[in-house]
Amino acid sequence: MPHRNNPVAQRNIPVVPPSDDKRWRVVDATMRRHGYAQSALIETLHKVQDSFGYLDSPSLIYVARSLSVPLSKTYGVATFYNLFRLKPQGEHLCVVCMGTACYIKGGAKLLSSAEQLLNIVAPDTTPDNAISLVTARCVGACGIAPVIIYDNQVAGSVSKDQMTAQLKEWLKSSSSV
Ligand code: FES
Cβ atoms within 10 A of the Cβ of 157, count? Predict the structure, then answer.
């Protein structure tokens, strides 16, 4: 069923979700709520990521067509913001805070040590899908900088040794599965 308020649909170009997965209904509801306005792009991409875990090409194409946003702009937004993932997230998530307080207290060094250890450049996921490494601007815990979030657990005053131990632990547990 074409979207009534969707300008692309009004031009009789069918805009069909990438699959019949029910999660697309949630995404569609978000776009409908905003009248398929182009300004709903970021919120819609968030909804896709919340629903599916990441943004793949078919998702980006679908959102771009539904909101009549050029595909290049949609890719641009998806790649500009660190919050968006273009690949499935790894088994574990390591978020290194790069806000000012954390940066000053050694966040950048922690990040480059993590990148070296994992042999990836954030934001990315190790080839075995064990660990995703991303950065954040400020996670609201500046008093305990530098901060890293390990699988939703906030760790403060993180040292390189502590971080290395955690990442190695994750790598070990995932290779022993
Ligand atoms: S800058 Fe890292 S928590 Fe605020």
Answer: 12
H/E segment holding residue 124:
strand 124-125
Whether the CA torsion 19, 79, 164, 107 is positive or negative: it is: negative
Q: From the CA of 148, how far away is ligand 1's center (Å)? A: 9
- Which two three-digit tokens encode residue 171? 């790598």
Ligand 1 in contact with 145 (CB < 6 A)? yes
Q: Which of 74, 63, 76 is nearest to 8 (CA)?
A: 63
Nearest to 31 by CA among 63, 73, 70: 63
Ligand 1 centroid to residue 59 C-alpha, Å: 32
Q: Are β-strands 92-97 and 131-136 bridged in parallel, bridged antiparallel, or unpaired?
A: parallel
Closest atom of ligand 1 to 107 CA is: 2
Q: How many angstroms does the Cα of residue 170 sit away from the middle of ligand 1?
A: 24
Question: For each successive 10 residues of the chain (177 residues), what is the average pLDDT?
Answer: 51 78 95 96 94 92 96 92 83 94 97 97 91 90 96 95 98 77
Where do the domains of the chain lie? Answer: 7-80, 92-175
What local confidence, expressed as pLDDT, does residue 85 receive?
Answer: 84
CATH 3.40.30.10 fits 92-175, yes or no: yes
Conformation bin of residue 8: beta by default, left when phi > 0, alpha when psi is -120 to 50: alpha
